[in-house]
Amino acid sequence: MIRHFHIRAIALPMVLWCIAFLAGLVVLTGGLVRGWIESESLAERKFVARQMALSGIALGLNPAVENGSPLLRKGDKNTEGYEVKITNESARLNPNFWIQSGNRAIFNRLFANWGASLAEAESAIDSLQDWIDGDDLVSLKGAERGDYERAGRPGYPANRPLKHIREMESVINLAPLLAAKQGWQEDFTIWYSGKISIQHVTEPILTALVELTPIQCQSLIEMRVGRDGVENTADDQKLESIEAVADFLGAGGKQRAALLEFFDTSGDLRRIESTGWCGGVSHKIVVIAPTGGAGQMMSWEEG
Ligand SMILES: [Ca+2]
Ligand SMILES: [Ca+2]
What we know:
alpha+beta, 10 helices, binds calcium ion
Protein backbone atom coordinates (compact mmCIF):
# COMPACT_ATOMS: atom_id res chain seq x y z
CA MET A 1 0.00 0.00 0.00
CA ILE A 2 2.81 2.30 0.98
CA ARG A 3 4.66 1.32 -2.16
CA HIS A 4 1.56 1.92 -4.34
CA PHE A 5 1.16 5.41 -2.83
CA HIS A 6 4.81 6.11 -3.59
CA ILE A 7 4.32 5.22 -7.26
CA ARG A 8 1.21 7.44 -7.44
CA ALA A 9 3.19 10.25 -5.80
CA ILE A 10 5.79 10.01 -8.60
CA ALA A 11 3.18 9.51 -11.36
CA LEU A 12 1.37 12.77 -10.68
CA PRO A 13 4.36 15.09 -11.27
CA MET A 14 5.22 12.97 -14.34
CA VAL A 15 1.75 13.44 -15.76
CA LEU A 16 1.81 17.16 -15.00
CA TRP A 17 5.23 17.44 -16.59
CA CYS A 18 4.01 15.60 -19.69
CA ILE A 19 1.01 17.89 -19.95
CA ALA A 20 3.23 20.94 -19.62
CA PHE A 21 5.63 19.52 -22.21
CA LEU A 22 2.86 18.72 -24.67
CA ALA A 23 1.27 22.11 -24.12
CA GLY A 24 4.64 23.73 -24.81
CA LEU A 25 5.01 21.60 -27.92
CA VAL A 26 1.57 22.63 -29.17
CA VAL A 27 2.39 26.32 -28.61
CA LEU A 28 5.74 25.90 -30.36
CA THR A 29 4.27 23.99 -33.31
CA GLY A 30 1.40 26.48 -33.51
CA GLY A 31 3.91 29.32 -33.72
CA LEU A 32 5.89 27.56 -36.42
CA VAL A 33 2.79 26.78 -38.47
CA ARG A 34 1.55 30.36 -38.13
CA GLY A 35 5.01 31.53 -39.25
CA TRP A 36 4.85 29.23 -42.27
CA ILE A 37 1.37 30.42 -43.19
CA GLU A 38 2.37 34.05 -42.80
CA SER A 39 5.55 33.73 -44.84
CA GLU A 40 3.64 31.74 -47.46
CA SER A 41 0.98 34.42 -47.71
CA LEU A 42 3.65 37.18 -47.68
CA ALA A 43 5.30 35.53 -50.70
CA GLU A 44 1.87 35.27 -52.30
CA ARG A 45 1.12 38.95 -51.63
CA LYS A 46 4.50 39.94 -53.05
CA PHE A 47 3.74 37.89 -56.15
CA VAL A 48 0.31 39.50 -56.61
CA ALA A 49 1.73 43.01 -55.96
CA ARG A 50 4.27 42.41 -58.75
CA GLN A 51 1.52 41.13 -61.10
CA MET A 52 -0.41 44.33 -60.34
CA ALA A 53 2.66 46.47 -61.10
CA LEU A 54 3.12 44.56 -64.38
CA SER A 55 -0.49 45.32 -65.38
CA GLY A 56 0.24 48.99 -64.72
CA ILE A 57 3.37 48.87 -66.91
CA ALA A 58 1.41 47.28 -69.77
CA LEU A 59 -1.07 50.18 -69.59
CA GLY A 60 1.69 52.78 -69.31
CA LEU A 61 3.40 51.39 -72.44
CA ASN A 62 0.17 51.60 -74.43
CA PRO A 63 0.42 54.80 -76.50
CA ALA A 64 -3.38 55.10 -76.44
CA VAL A 65 -3.37 55.45 -72.66
CA GLU A 66 -2.66 59.04 -71.69
CA ASN A 67 -1.35 60.51 -68.49
CA GLY A 68 -4.20 61.30 -66.08
CA SER A 69 -6.38 58.50 -67.50
CA PRO A 70 -8.58 56.83 -64.85
CA LEU A 71 -7.24 53.50 -66.19
CA LEU A 72 -3.91 54.27 -64.55
CA ARG A 73 -5.23 53.69 -61.07
CA LYS A 74 -7.07 50.64 -59.77
CA GLY A 75 -7.89 49.43 -56.24
CA ASP A 76 -5.95 50.57 -53.21
CA LYS A 77 -2.96 49.77 -51.03
CA ASN A 78 -4.80 47.63 -48.47
CA THR A 79 -6.60 45.30 -50.86
CA GLU A 80 -4.96 45.06 -54.27
CA GLY A 81 -4.38 47.33 -57.25
CA TYR A 82 -1.89 49.64 -58.93
CA GLU A 83 -1.06 53.23 -59.64
CA VAL A 84 0.87 54.39 -62.72
CA LYS A 85 2.66 57.70 -63.14
CA ILE A 86 3.72 58.77 -66.64
CA THR A 87 6.35 61.48 -66.89
CA ASN A 88 9.05 62.34 -69.41
CA GLU A 89 12.71 61.42 -69.06
CA SER A 90 13.73 64.38 -71.26
CA ALA A 91 12.82 66.67 -68.32
CA ARG A 92 16.03 65.46 -66.63
CA LEU A 93 19.69 66.32 -66.76
CA ASN A 94 22.10 63.76 -68.23
CA PRO A 95 25.47 64.05 -66.43
CA ASN A 96 27.28 62.19 -69.25
CA PHE A 97 25.94 64.60 -71.88
CA TRP A 98 26.69 67.80 -69.94
CA ILE A 99 30.17 66.72 -68.77
CA GLN A 100 31.11 65.61 -72.29
CA SER A 101 29.76 68.91 -73.66
CA GLY A 102 32.14 70.72 -71.28
CA ASN A 103 29.24 72.60 -69.67
CA ARG A 104 29.98 73.17 -65.98
CA ALA A 105 27.47 75.98 -65.55
CA ILE A 106 24.49 73.66 -65.41
CA PHE A 107 26.00 71.73 -62.47
CA ASN A 108 27.13 74.94 -60.76
CA ARG A 109 23.60 76.34 -60.85
CA LEU A 110 21.98 73.12 -59.72
CA PHE A 111 24.38 72.56 -56.82
CA ALA A 112 24.15 76.22 -55.75
CA ASN A 113 20.38 75.81 -55.71
CA TRP A 114 20.85 72.78 -53.43
CA GLY A 115 22.78 75.02 -51.03
CA ALA A 116 26.35 73.95 -51.91
CA SER A 117 29.18 76.49 -51.75
CA LEU A 118 31.09 77.35 -54.94
CA ALA A 119 34.12 75.38 -53.69
CA GLU A 120 31.96 72.31 -52.97
CA ALA A 121 30.30 72.55 -56.38
CA GLU A 122 33.63 72.96 -58.20
CA SER A 123 35.23 69.93 -56.56
CA ALA A 124 32.08 67.85 -57.19
CA ILE A 125 32.10 68.79 -60.89
CA ASP A 126 35.87 68.17 -61.26
CA SER A 127 35.49 64.75 -59.64
CA LEU A 128 32.54 63.84 -61.85
CA GLN A 129 34.63 64.91 -64.86
CA ASP A 130 37.50 62.66 -63.67
CA TRP A 131 35.10 59.74 -63.07
CA ILE A 132 33.76 59.99 -66.63
CA ASP A 133 36.86 60.90 -68.65
CA GLY A 134 39.09 58.05 -69.79
CA ASP A 135 42.39 59.49 -68.54
CA ASP A 136 44.14 59.52 -65.17
CA LEU A 137 44.94 63.26 -65.19
CA VAL A 138 43.50 64.83 -62.07
CA SER A 139 41.38 67.94 -62.62
CA LEU A 140 42.10 70.92 -60.36
CA LYS A 141 39.83 69.83 -57.50
CA GLY A 142 38.99 66.38 -58.85
CA ALA A 143 39.84 62.78 -57.98
CA GLU A 144 41.51 60.08 -60.08
CA ARG A 145 42.97 56.63 -59.34
CA GLY A 146 45.47 57.75 -56.67
CA ASP A 147 42.78 59.58 -54.70
CA TYR A 148 40.49 56.54 -54.74
CA GLU A 149 43.39 54.25 -53.72
CA ARG A 150 44.19 56.55 -50.80
CA ALA A 151 40.50 56.45 -49.85
CA GLY A 152 40.72 52.62 -49.73
CA ARG A 153 38.81 52.12 -52.98
CA PRO A 154 41.31 50.79 -55.54
CA GLY A 155 39.99 50.22 -59.05
CA TYR A 156 38.07 53.51 -59.20
CA PRO A 157 37.10 55.84 -60.87
CA ALA A 158 35.23 54.09 -63.69
CA ASN A 159 36.87 56.28 -66.39
CA ARG A 160 33.82 55.95 -68.65
CA PRO A 161 30.33 57.48 -68.87
CA LEU A 162 27.92 56.61 -66.04
CA LYS A 163 25.90 53.43 -66.59
CA HIS A 164 23.45 54.26 -63.81
CA ILE A 165 22.79 57.53 -62.04
CA ARG A 166 23.36 55.82 -58.66
CA GLU A 167 27.04 55.52 -59.70
CA MET A 168 27.26 59.23 -58.87
CA GLU A 169 27.11 58.27 -55.19
CA SER A 170 30.54 56.66 -55.62
CA VAL A 171 32.17 59.85 -56.91
CA ILE A 172 34.49 61.47 -54.34
CA ASN A 173 33.40 65.07 -53.54
CA LEU A 174 30.04 64.58 -55.27
CA ALA A 175 28.77 61.97 -52.81
CA PRO A 176 28.34 64.41 -49.87
CA LEU A 177 26.26 66.79 -52.01
CA LEU A 178 23.94 63.96 -53.07
CA ALA A 179 23.67 62.65 -49.51
CA ALA A 180 22.48 66.09 -48.38
CA LYS A 181 19.88 66.44 -51.16
CA GLN A 182 16.82 64.27 -50.70
CA GLY A 183 15.33 63.03 -53.98
CA TRP A 184 18.38 64.08 -56.05
CA GLN A 185 17.74 61.09 -58.33
CA GLU A 186 14.66 62.86 -59.74
CA ASP A 187 16.84 65.49 -61.44
CA PHE A 188 19.00 63.05 -63.45
CA THR A 189 18.87 60.50 -66.27
CA ILE A 190 21.31 58.55 -68.35
CA TRP A 191 18.67 57.44 -70.84
CA TYR A 192 17.78 60.72 -72.44
CA SER A 193 20.73 62.53 -74.01
CA GLY A 194 20.61 66.17 -75.01
CA LYS A 195 19.56 69.55 -73.69
CA ILE A 196 16.64 69.45 -71.28
CA SER A 197 13.22 69.51 -72.93
CA ILE A 198 11.38 72.78 -72.30
CA GLN A 199 8.21 70.87 -73.13
CA HIS A 200 8.59 68.58 -70.12
CA VAL A 201 10.93 70.29 -67.62
CA THR A 202 9.64 70.55 -64.06
CA GLU A 203 9.32 73.68 -61.94
CA PRO A 204 12.21 72.83 -59.53
CA ILE A 205 14.65 72.51 -62.45
CA LEU A 206 13.38 75.71 -64.09
CA THR A 207 13.82 77.55 -60.80
CA ALA A 208 17.30 76.12 -60.21
CA LEU A 209 18.70 76.66 -63.71
CA VAL A 210 16.89 79.75 -65.02
CA GLU A 211 15.79 81.42 -61.79
CA LEU A 212 12.30 81.82 -63.22
CA THR A 213 9.86 83.32 -60.73
CA PRO A 214 6.98 81.13 -59.50
CA ILE A 215 4.60 83.20 -61.68
CA GLN A 216 6.75 82.64 -64.78
CA CYS A 217 6.95 78.89 -64.05
CA GLN A 218 3.22 78.72 -63.51
CA SER A 219 2.37 80.53 -66.75
CA LEU A 220 4.71 78.27 -68.76
CA ILE A 221 3.18 75.14 -67.25
CA GLU A 222 -0.39 76.39 -67.71
CA MET A 223 0.30 77.14 -71.36
CA ARG A 224 2.03 73.79 -71.92
CA VAL A 225 -0.65 71.50 -70.49
CA GLY A 226 -3.26 72.32 -73.13
CA ARG A 227 -7.02 72.39 -72.61
CA ASP A 228 -7.30 69.29 -70.45
CA GLY A 229 -4.97 70.82 -67.86
CA VAL A 230 -2.91 67.59 -67.72
CA GLU A 231 0.76 67.28 -68.66
CA ASN A 232 1.93 64.67 -71.18
CA THR A 233 -1.34 64.31 -73.10
CA ALA A 234 -2.09 64.69 -76.82
CA ASP A 235 -3.55 68.18 -76.49
CA ASP A 236 -0.39 69.67 -74.93
CA GLN A 237 0.69 72.93 -76.54
CA LYS A 238 3.83 72.17 -78.59
CA LEU A 239 6.56 74.69 -77.87
CA GLU A 240 8.16 75.67 -81.18
CA SER A 241 11.33 77.48 -80.12
CA ILE A 242 13.21 78.55 -77.00
CA GLU A 243 13.17 82.16 -78.26
CA ALA A 244 9.37 82.06 -78.43
CA VAL A 245 9.23 80.63 -74.90
CA ALA A 246 11.55 83.39 -73.64
CA ASP A 247 9.34 86.03 -75.33
CA PHE A 248 6.21 84.49 -73.85
CA LEU A 249 7.76 84.58 -70.36
CA GLY A 250 9.15 88.07 -70.79
CA ALA A 251 12.56 86.56 -70.04
CA GLY A 252 15.48 88.81 -70.94
CA GLY A 253 19.14 89.01 -69.97
CA LYS A 254 20.35 86.14 -67.77
CA GLN A 255 17.05 84.25 -67.84
CA ARG A 256 16.96 84.27 -71.63
CA ALA A 257 20.62 83.22 -71.87
CA ALA A 258 20.02 80.33 -69.45
CA LEU A 259 16.95 79.16 -71.37
CA LEU A 260 18.96 79.10 -74.61
CA GLU A 261 21.96 77.39 -72.99
CA PHE A 262 20.24 74.54 -71.16
CA PHE A 263 16.99 73.84 -73.02
CA ASP A 264 15.67 72.58 -76.32
CA THR A 265 12.22 71.96 -77.76
CA SER A 266 13.02 68.36 -78.73
CA GLY A 267 13.22 65.32 -76.46
CA ASP A 268 10.50 62.79 -75.76
CA LEU A 269 11.04 59.62 -73.75
CA ARG A 270 8.31 58.07 -71.66
CA ARG A 271 9.03 57.21 -68.03
CA ILE A 272 6.47 54.83 -66.57
CA GLU A 273 6.46 54.29 -62.80
CA SER A 274 4.03 51.58 -61.75
CA THR A 275 3.40 50.61 -58.14
CA GLY A 276 1.42 47.41 -57.49
CA TRP A 277 -0.18 46.55 -54.14
CA CYS A 278 -1.56 43.52 -52.37
CA GLY A 279 -2.57 43.39 -48.72
CA GLY A 280 -0.20 46.15 -47.63
CA VAL A 281 2.75 44.84 -49.70
CA SER A 282 3.92 47.01 -52.61
CA HIS A 283 6.15 46.45 -55.63
CA LYS A 284 7.46 49.18 -57.94
CA ILE A 285 8.58 48.89 -61.56
CA VAL A 286 10.09 51.78 -63.54
CA VAL A 287 10.36 51.52 -67.32
CA ILE A 288 11.86 53.97 -69.80
CA ALA A 289 10.61 53.58 -73.36
CA PRO A 290 10.30 55.73 -76.48
CA THR A 291 6.95 57.52 -76.55
CA GLY A 292 4.65 55.94 -79.10
CA GLY A 293 5.07 52.39 -77.84
CA ALA A 294 6.46 50.62 -80.91
CA GLY A 295 10.11 51.03 -79.87
CA GLN A 296 12.13 48.87 -77.51
CA MET A 297 12.28 49.49 -73.79
CA MET A 298 15.52 51.17 -72.75
CA SER A 299 15.44 50.42 -69.05
CA TRP A 300 13.51 48.16 -66.66
CA GLU A 301 14.03 48.44 -62.91
CA GLU A 302 12.19 46.73 -60.08
CA GLY A 303 12.23 47.17 -56.36
CA1 LIG B 1 39.43 59.89 -65.44
CA1 LIG C 1 -2.58 68.20 -71.90
